[in-house]
Amino acid sequence: MSIDPYAWIEPSLTTIHRADWYRFEQTISSLPGAIVQLEGRTVINFASNDYLGLAGDRSLIAAAIFATEKYGTGSTGSRLLSGHRQLHRELEKAIASLKQTEAALVFSSGYMANLGAIASVVGKRDLILCDRYNHSSLKNGAILSGATILDYEHCHIADLENQLKQHREKYRRCLIITDTVFSMDGDLCPLPKILDLAEHFHCMVLVDEAHATGVLGKNGAGCVEHFNCTDRQLIQIGTLSKALGSLGGYVAGSSTLIDFLRNRAPTWIYTTGLSPADTAAALEAIKIVQQEPERRFQLWQNIETLKLLIAQELPNIKLLPSESAILCLQLKDAATALAAGIKLKEAGIFAPAIRPPTVPTSRIRISVMATHQTEQLEKLVTALKNL
Ligand SMILES: *Cc1c(COP(=O)(O)O)cnc(C)c1O
272 pairs with which residues across the strands? Predict the structure, then answer.
């Protein structure tokens, strides 16, 4: 047998190319911010999740340096062995305070938090109901859990109710999982209705607040706060790497839940604790979210300004419905989206094409930041006009 067992990879790559699905990285060589150096070109940045402009903020950088000098670069072990520091506990307390929950637990990333939490609370005898547009980490967490997974139509309460009526009885526990802000669309899940259904059918609810934390809600706690649902029982996941400008993820909820996860979540138990630098930067970011609400107000002002400019200047454009800092311009197919992304970059605008299999339909995705100037929003609209 002389057949190379890896020979399948190259034709598979060719197939990806043919579908215009091929992806590659682009290098940014400056600090993160509203303007970045992208592949040697100065561009206005509409591709970042750094909604409050904190990832390049001097106080976060200083906190990370201070923590590194004091505690070193690595936490050297899992939290239960040698990797736990007082800084981790302080961060967990700060997250719980922001989210108005009893407790929180910090993971290496939001992705890991979802895998660990979902796989811990349900298993083979249980049912998961999953919004069709949920993030990859929710979907893979569901698979990892071994539970039966049923998808419901995107944000479709009647479909969710139907499936619960049909299937809930056959299973022990049931978990409904959903993004609160959908990451590739920008719309919100109908949380109060989901929680009411969950109560009626005796289900747990797990929400992913990745794009809502620091952005939505009176105190920046997220979509749960936006909908006045902070007193409802649920499992809240989030990331430290978007509006909080650092790296890591978390679960927030009751102290019983957090205590259970500390003993059960494999992606928390068997992995190294968050680095001192990431921990300290996230802690500083939460302080800023709580003490400087004007950053969030500015973000929302920018979102409204951009929506208004688009409505005025581009009346025929198809924007997907959005109630967040994510605005999407729907396009015909992957090739059109790619070409639009390239043309925008030539005009000094960084707004990426998002294609299948990440999303069902191709689009240009625009992320608004608190640190964008009105003039930069105007330049984006002009570039979109010229497409
Ligand atoms: C980005 C994102 C994650 C992953 O968070 P990381 O901390 O980057 O791993 C999870 N869920 C959603 C909805 C996201 O957008």
Answer: 78
pLDDT tens column, 57-76 = 999 999 999 999 999 999 99
Cβ(362) to ligand 1 under 6 A? no
Quote the domain boundaries for residue 352. Answer: 26-51+293-385
Residues 303 and 282 both lie in one domain:
no
From start to end of 52-202, where are the E strands? Answer: 103-107, 127-131, 148-152, 174-179
* Residue 230 CB–ligand 1 contact under 6 Å: no
Distance CA 217, CA 206 (A): 18
51, 137, 207, 213: residue to mutate for ligand 1 pocket, most atoms within 8 A of CB? 137
Looking at residue 1, its pLDDT comes to 60
Instruction: Report the chain's mean pLDDT, rounded to a whole number.
Output: 96
Query: Does one domain contain both 66 and 41?
Result: no
**Residues 248 and 348 placed together within one structural domain of the fold:** no
pLDDT tens digits, residue range 112-153?
999 999 999 999 999 999 999 999 999 999 999 999 999 999
DSSP state of 170: G
* Domain identity same for 372 and 302: yes
Instruction: Report which protein residue has its CA nearest ligand 1's atom 2.
Output: 210
Mean of pLDDT values over 46-54: 98
Query: Atom 7 (ligand 1): residue with closest C-alpha?
Result: 110
Same domain, 168 and 265: yes
The string of pLDDT tens digits covering residues 301-338 is 999 999 999 999 998 888 899 999 999 999 989 899 99
In this structure, the answer to whether residues 222 and 316 fall within a common structural domain is no
239: Cβ below 6 Å to ligand 1? yes
Rounded Cα gap, residues 296 and 369, in angstroms? 9
In angstroms, what CA-CA distances link 379 with 45, 124, 336?
11, 52, 21
Count of the separate structural domains present in the chain: 2
- CB of 107 sitting under 6 A from ligand 1: no
pLDDT of 358 reads: 85
Does the reported pTM lie above 0.90?
A: yes
Å from CA of 189 to ligand 1 middle: 16
Burial class (CB in 10 A: 0-12, 13-18, 19+), 329: buried
